[in-house]
Amino acid sequence: MVASRFDTWLEDPLLRRLWTAVREAGPIRSVAVDLTDTCNIRCEGCYFFAEGMDQVSAAGAAGVDGFIDRERTRGTNFVTVVGGEPSLALDRLSKLYGAFRLSVATNGVVPIPRHGFEELPIGVSVWGDTVTDRALRGGGRRDLFAAALDNYRNDPRAFWYYTVAPGHATQVESVVERCVDNGNRVLFNFYGDLEARGGDLDYRRGFGDVRDAIDCAIDRHPGAVLMTSRLADVVSSGRLFDERWGHAVCTSITPDHAANADRITNGRPYNPHFRAFHADLETTRRCCTGVERGCDSCFDTWQHFSWVMLNLKKHLRSEEDFTEWLATTYLFYFINRLVDLDDEASLLEEIHRRTRRRKPAAV
């Protein structure tokens, strides 16, 4: 019965196109790595420092070569590069770029050159408007947002990884406008307040107003927003059908890490290939963004992408649910340049038209 419905759903031209693109790109066998233990700024609420990940010294050239050999032998074909600030370790980044498909996260202060990294997807961080971003990332003094805009203006590799706090919904419109006017697209993330500053940063306030603001951004810029309305719900509410976000369901775990012994036997899906490596490129941690922290403050969009993608069976209940799964999966491949980007703007617009669920907030 499910197979019959599935074949019927794929008679839809859009769904067939997305499904074919993902299938042709093939399965992702991914790992996440901290490329360096250093950074040129100190953001308030950054998990890397909050969890002491900077205490692991970065691998040298021989360590990078050994990592590449081991992971290629193991079958890894995609690496998410985070940890410290990757633009400060371009030699290591270049080695990984030559060996794997990559995606990299950067604070944007030091531009990653185009030469030698021509097809590298680059997620550039911003945490709010000029005032907010300066306060949280620039130590109250530096306008990092403006500097990063200059560094990545009209750069087709770059998209903005915009982390929004619960009380900052009113900033979404202006921040997205600046990113789009800069010639870039936007993917949203949600602030976890790891330093417990509270107030308008407190995730316990909920993200309802932020979700409404994201919906408005989708309505205004459907060719530029790299997240569906439904995915924003999943990430910020921590709910996927009957499941509640937490360690028991997180799919971006290191399976052979001692902290995950119970997790991998609880029957919930996970990625058996995945590993989250410290900067020495040998030792691993529990998951992408955590060593000991509780999962209630984790709103990491990449981990929630994986949560959705590895739960295909839950999305076979209806064509609407399957469309949401396929759109989310395709967007992951699209953001990371794993699929052909031809006609991307019109395709994104159609994806948003199909997956738009809630009534738009007042404009």
Short description:
The protein has a single domain (2-355), classed as TIM Barrel (Alpha-Beta Barrel), CATH 3.20.20. 37% of the residues lie in helices and 11% in strands. The chain has helices at residues 2-9, 13-25, 47-50, 61-74, 90-99, 130-137, 144-151, 172-181, 208-220, 229-237, 301-309, 319-335, 344-355; strands spanning 30-34, 78-82, 101-106, 122-126, 158-164, 185-190, 239-240, 243-244, 276-277.
Name the descriptors.
two-stranded antiparallel sheet, globular, 363 residues, 37% helix, alpha/beta, single chain, seven-stranded parallel sheet, TIM Barrel
What topology emerges from the helices and strands here?
Elements: H1 2-9, H2 13-25, E1 30-34, H3 47-50, H4 61-74, E2 78-82, H5 90-99, E3 101-106, E4 122-126, H6 130-137, H7 144-151, E5 158-164, H8 172-181, E6 185-190, H9 208-220, H10 229-237, E7 239-240, E8 243-244, E9 276-277, H11 301-309, H12 319-335, H13 344-355
Parallel strand pairs: 1-2, 1-9, 2-3, 3-4, 4-5, 5-6
Antiparallel strand pairs: 7-8
Helix pairs in contact: 2-12, 4-5, 9-10, 10-11
Under CATH at level 1, the class stands as Alpha Beta
Structural class, by secondary structure, is alpha/beta
Counting copies of identical and different chains, the oligomeric state is: single chain
Query: What is the CATH architecture annotation?
Result: Alpha-Beta Barrel
Proportion of residues in β-strands:
5-15%
Total of helices: 13
End-to-end gap: 43 Å
Mean pLDDT reading: 94
**Range of helix content:** 25-40%
Main beta sheet strand tally, sense and closure: 7 strands, parallel
User: H/E series, N to C?
Assistant: HHEHHEHEEHHEHEHHEEEHHH
Domain count? 1
Using DSSP, what is the number of strands? 9
